[in-house]
Specification:
Layout: H1 17-24, E1 29-34, H2 41-54, E2 59-63, H3 64-69, H4 79-98, E3 102-106, H5 112-121, E4 127-133, H6 136-142, H7 147-152, E5 174-177, H8 183-196
Parallel strand pairs: 1-3, 1-4, 2-3, 4-5
Length: 200
Amino acid sequence: MSQKVENIVWHESTVTKEDRQKSNNHKSCILWFTGLSGSGKSTLANAVEHKLYELDKKTFVLDGDNVRHGLNKGLGFSADDRRENIRRIGEVSKLFVDAGVITLTAFISPFKEDRDQVREIVEDGEFIEVFVKCSLEECESRDPKGLYQKARAGEIPEFTGISSPYEEPEKPELVIESDQLSIEESVNKVIDYLKGQSII
């Protein structure tokens, strides 16, 4: 067990989050895309980012697979490692929000408690939970990485939706039914929400 670090002090930045938001001409937030593997989280997050880029907004996408190549490459898929994975992403996302950036995250993040903990570390209105809702049957039929097939064959233990639970958000800010809406319709729904909340 690592020893807790003491004698560290938080240093406030001379340039504030509000200063950065004013410079960017928009507010910052976390668009937290959650859903089953294959539901379309990454596709939607990247499509929303592209639209925001066209609107001259400052953005960054944190994708589950990409983050596990670097920041979280030492973590596995046990309950504790999954929790730590989301905790770290939450902290990184908060740094981006403090930098005045609209941060888009695409993580299964199957547990409500973990998502709620990220919500708690940012200010009210800065955590926008986007439930990318898609039936398990549709996700399995898509199976872009062949993961469901491996999970059904017992090759991947603790696979969300098969051998590990997915806790659907109870009160997400947005629900995008990716098996019902086109990608364009889905993107517009997110953009309309951001405009309605005066984030952009």
